[in-house]
Amino acid sequence: MWRKSPDGRSRDSGFTLIEVLAALAIGSVIIMSTAALTWNVTQFFDHGTRGVSEADRLVLAIDRLAADFGAARFAQRLTAGGGAAAAFIGRSGKGRQPAKVIFVSGDTVSTSPEDEEVVVLSAEASDDVTRLVRRRAPWLGPRTQIEGIVGKDPVVLIEGRIDIQFTFGKVAADGSLSWQDTWFDEFTLPRFVRLILRSRDTRADLLDGAVFVVRSNAPPSCIADNPSAQCLVAAAPTGANQPQRAGNASQ
């Protein structure tokens, strides 16, 4: 501010203490308001981005599972008793053992054994979070003990406060479809694999029972996005080749 000296001439005397304090107070209010606005915008942006990312991640996981099961191949493995069974092992996760599915998958065109690998899908719990983890391992032929394979290159497909379960669908010669909780020492692959993601908070199935089609030994006319049970039954085994173990089947 400007003041006059005793001799009548004006000079710059600077700001008073009160003016400085007032300026600091106003500046502090502006800074606090700006910080609060920035925090709110950041929180809303992060929440929206995280929601979209989780939805996209779930869609990618479903696509990955559909591709894996769609590329499943029929291969035989030696059982503990010296017999032969399909190289496909699955357990639902309804009991004490967590859900797990092991099968041979590979390129859908090439028939070279080098293009085949074992896919291991396992539900793994840590703290209060359950994850569906995908691993892979080389398929070395019928003598491969796939039930003991752990796999490498883990990729978390799905995670959250959920219970993960699988069930396995079998089509009978009359066209009826049944679901069972295990698939072990069967002579064929399942026709369908159903994934259930149940929220621990609401107990609702988050996917409404997503069903994946195993097309390995279906006839060519059934190779479509959504083949029907009537189409797939054409390749259902009969007679001596019919699977003899029903597991925990239910209609």
List keywords for this structure.
elongated; 14 strands; six-stranded antiparallel β-sheet; 251 residues
Description:
The structure is a single chain. The strands form four sheets. A six-stranded antiparallel beta sheet has the order 9-8-7-6-5-12, covered by helices on one side. Strands 11-10-13-14 form a four-stranded antiparallel beta sheet, with helices on one face. A two-stranded antiparallel sheet has the order 1-2. It is elongated, with a radius of gyration of 31 Å. Strand 1 and strand 2 form a beta hairpin. By secondary structure, the protein is of the alpha+beta class. It is built from two helices and 14 strands, in the order ββαββββββββββββα. It has one domain.
Q: What spatial order of strands do you see in the largest sheet?
A: 9-8-7-6-5-12
Put simply, the count of helices is: 2
Give the SSE order as H and E letters.
EEHEEEEEEEEEEEEH
Number of domains: 1
The tally of strands reads 14
